[in-house]
Amino acid sequence: MKLSARNQLEGRVMLVKAGPINAEVVIDAGGQKITSIISLDALEELGIKEGSTVTALFKASSVLLMA
After folding, report:
1. How much is the average pLDDT of 12-26?
2. Residue 50 CB partners (closer than 8 Å, separation 6+)
């Protein structure tokens, strides 16, 4: 699969908190914690659970930096 998103971080799922509609998925990507909100359908279709290896993709028209 080809994607235009250049920013990708692979990590391991640390926590899955399923709600009534969406799920909060927290991954550890090389010591950085990243949180994603996905639909319950996506959670089930992708088979994501604690311990799974996933890739977080980022695409944004602007990226803000703070020093």
Report:
1. 97
2. 13, 14, 15, 16
